[in-house]
């Protein structure tokens, strides 16, 4: 059974950093495209970053600030978020390809 569990969200001031973790079970993250998405209440869920076979893709609004990478812990995918802005406030979701979602983790950027 595929399961994705996000963690690492929290509250941070503008300019700060957070690292999100996506722990996967039921499949090997190295065998699939893994992506991070985010959603603000009342808006569509939007793509943030993807990792597939060592190649990364980023939304324009996070380029140079966020980094997606394979975690050191078993079967995890990480999202390093630097230079956070209030506009980055959202629930962040991990996703296996175009399939299952995790439950999300809240990120709040505020002074």
Architecture overview:
This protein has no helices and ten strands. It has about 110 residues and is mainly beta. The chain starts with a strand and ends with a strand. The model has no long low-confidence stretch (mean pLDDT about 95).
Strand content: over 45%
Q: Quote the average pLDDT.
A: 95
The helix fraction, in percent, is: under 10%
E-strand count = 10
Order of helices and strands: EEEEEEEEEE
List the strand order in the largest sheet. 2-10-9-4-5-6
How would you describe this structure in keywords?
single chain, mainly beta, four-stranded antiparallel beta sheet
How would you sum up this structure in a few lines?
The protein has 111 residues and is mostly beta strands.
Topology:
Blueprint: E1 3-7, E2 10-12, E3 18-25, E4 34-39, E5 46-52, E6 55-58, E7 66-70, E8 76-81, E9 90-96, E10 105-109
Parallel strand pairs: 2-10
Antiparallel strand pairs: 1-3, 3-8, 4-5, 4-9, 5-6, 7-8, 9-10
């Amino acid at each position: 059974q595929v399961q994705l569990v996000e963690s690492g969200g929290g509250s941070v001031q503008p300019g700060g950093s957070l690292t999100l973790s996506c722990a996967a079970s039921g499949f090997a993250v190295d065998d699939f495209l893994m992506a991070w998405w985010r959603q603000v209440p009342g808006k569509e869920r939007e793509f943030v970053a993807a990792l597939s076979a060592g190649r990364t893709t980023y939304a324009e609004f996070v380029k140079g600030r966020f980094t997606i990478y394979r975690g050191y812990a078993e079967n995890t995918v990480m999202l390093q978020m630097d230079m956070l802005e209030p506009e980055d406030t959202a629930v962040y979701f991990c996703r296996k390809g175009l399939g299952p979602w995790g439950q999300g983790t809240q990120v709040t950027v505020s002074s």
